[in-house]
Amino acid sequence: MPDRRPGSVSPAASAARTESLTPGDAGQLAAIAESYLLRGGQPGLVYGIVAGGSLVHARGLGERRLGGPPPDTDTVFRIASMTKSFTAAAVLALRDDGALALEDLAADFVPELREISPATADSPGISIRHLLTMTAGFPTDDPWGDRQQGLPSGEFARFLAGGVRFAWAPGTRFEYANLGYAILGRVIAAASGAGYPDFVRSRLLRPLGMTVTGFEAAEFSEAQLAGGYRRGPGGWEELVPDPAGAFAPMGGIFSTVSDLSRWLGGFAAAFPPGEEDAARPHRSGVRPGAICSCRRSRCRRSRRRSRQAPALAATVSGSLSRTTLSTAGSSSTAAGIRDSAVTCAGTWRAAWG
């Protein structure tokens, strides 16, 4: 099995930063990754371990393209639903700017939602918080949601105007639905005055130096990009990536383990590991009273609610408190690797293939 430990992770740096990562831990994680690859769900994958805010260990398995070399920390993959953490962070940034509040109705920003029939006569309207926490009442929509990745914004607007079905009244039950995050992309665009990809680039990616993260396959060279495949009658069939459309906020970002380690390091710094029964985050990255310089009346509401940000972010990034392998549509947890977080990108495949 092809195997590569990328040179971008210094052995000296690794030794200095991985007091909690033993050779046995690394071996356990390697065994999980190898077992996952051998299931045949994708031609290749790469994973990395972030500890102390830095990428300290990485390994690539399989092929980035059929017949090609193994992927490494600089190989670009579509990261699928890991995109949702960027969408949630963009919403929280706009909340901190005073451009919206989490209890605001989504219909205030997405006019097509105003005519939707409620689940019941006494159901509340769909709030931004409902969308973030997947409690808006929408039914699970895999793999339909994956197929809408490149849906043009105009078609999405017409889809919403035609009505949306509910499985539950908003706020009463969690159910995983990609549609809610597609709607959040509309909320972000309306509140920021910029397109969803533009706002995420300017507010999150550029400030963090995530220079090898984007929304279109064409942004990267063929040598950088991992191929996308699905199983056909004759074996693997290569697919052309969908463009960044209306459902990009739920799964459209392309990135690398190197760039994702920056993203993960930020979450780990804000919410360091602690006791499992801790009722709140250990550290708040929000400074009430210093989060917005504009004079909009909503800013006061944003400041009053700013203390809620860590709790929501902890919900969004909860999987970062344990070691997790993630690929398109799949995840598995390696127990016992303490105080570390893992980023993993698998050669993306069609969820319906």
Describe the model.
With 353 residues, this protein is of the alpha+beta class. It has two domains: 117 residues, no CATH class; 147 residues, Beta-lactamase (3-Layer(aba) Sandwich), CATH 3.40.710. 33% of the residues lie in helices and 14% in strands. It contains twelve helices and ten strands. A hairpin with a 2-residue loop joins strand 8 and strand 9. The longest helix has 16 residues. The N terminus and C terminus are likely disordered.
Q: What is the first-to-last residue Cα distance?
A: 24 Å
DSSP helix fraction = 25-40%
Number of domains: 2
Largest sheet: 4 strands, antiparallel
**Quick one: CATH class of the largest domain?**
Alpha Beta
What's the alpha carbon Rg, rounded to whole Å?
A: 20 Å
Strand order of the largest sheet: 1-3-2-10
CATH fold label of the largest domain: Beta-lactamase
What would the principal axes of the Cα set say about the shape? globular
CATH superfamily of the largest domain: DD-peptidase/beta-lactamase superfamily
Overall residue-averaged pLDDT value: 78
Poorly predicted runs = 1-19, 282-353
- Helical run tally: 12
Record keyword descriptors for this entry.
10 strands; disordered C terminus; globular; 353 residues; two-stranded antiparallel sheet; alpha+beta; 33% helix; four-stranded antiparallel beta sheet; single chain; disordered N terminus
